[in-house]
């Protein structure tokens, strides 16, 4: 079972269509070994070649990338290879020439696609489990961090 995450939902991607000047799309890859869903925003490139329009695709703000479901761990490499071939064919047909993916740090989907994407680590990310405490900021954040949060909220007039 795959956890639901807003970053992989099309309504979330639609929020960024105007900002990115593109259209959200989903590439669904179905195979007997499993499936892969890839949500992205398609943006028109300014450069035309031979009168043709070309595109780039990118992850909506936040995290995303292709996500595998209903696949045994041992079958993932084969499924990813099949996805890569199908997605490459699709991109060629649709004149998609560039892609930027921000893989999800919790789902670790970059590991599944390291053989077909040029993956590089950019930075660590921090999260908190809101269900573990009634006041996660008080329970998990340092005194100096809590003070900075309070100052920022005061500055915005929210306290």
List the helices and strands and how they pair.
Elements: H1 10-14, H2 17-20, E1 22-31, E2 34-49, E3 52-58, E4 67-69, H3 76-94, E5 96-100, H4 109-112, H5 136-140, H6 143-155
Parallel strand pairs: 3-5
Antiparallel strand pairs: 1-2, 2-3, 2-4
Strand tally, please? Answer: 5
Annotation field: number of helices: 6
Percent helix range: 25-40%
Report the major sheet.
5 strands, mixed
Q: How far apart, in Å, are the first and last alpha carbons? A: 41 Å
Q: How much of the polypeptide forms β-strand, as a percent range?
A: 25-35%
Low-pLDDT windows of residues: none
Structural class: alpha+beta
Shape type: globular
> If you compute it from the alpha carbons, what radius of gyration comes out, rounded to the nearest whole angstrom?
19 Å
**What is the mean pLDDT?**
91
- Helix and strand element order: HHEEEEHEHHH
TL;DR of this structure?
This protein has 159 residues and is an alpha+beta fold. It contains 6 helices and 5 strands; from the N terminus they run ααββββαβααα.
Describe the protein's architecture and organization:
The chain has six helices and five strands, in the order H-H-E-E-E-E-H-E-H-H-H. Strands 1, 2, 3, 4 and 5 form a five-stranded mixed sheet that branches. By secondary structure, it is an alpha+beta fold. The model has no long low-confidence stretch (mean pLDDT 91). Helices cover 31% and strands 26% of the residues.
């Amino acid at each position: 079972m795959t956890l639901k995450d807003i970053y992989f939902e099309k309504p979330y991607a639609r929020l960024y269509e105007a900002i990115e000047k593109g259209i959200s799309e989903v590439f669904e890859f179905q195979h007997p070994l499993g499936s892969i869903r890839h949500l992205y925003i398609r943006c028109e490139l300014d450069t035309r070649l031979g009168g043709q329009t070309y595109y780039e695709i990118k992850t909506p703000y936040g995290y995303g990338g292709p996500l595998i479901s209903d696949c045994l761990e041992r079958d993932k490499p084969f499924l990813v290879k099949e996805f890569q071939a199908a997605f490459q064919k699709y991109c060629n047909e649709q004149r998609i020439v560039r892609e930027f993916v921000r893989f999800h740090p919790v789902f670790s989907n970059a590991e599944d696609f390291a053989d077909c994407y040029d993956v590089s680590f950019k930075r660590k990310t921090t999260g908190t489990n809101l269900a573990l405490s009634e006041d996660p900021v008080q329970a998990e954040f340092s005194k100096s961090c809590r003070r900075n949060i309070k100052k920022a909220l005061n500055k915005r007039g929210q306290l």
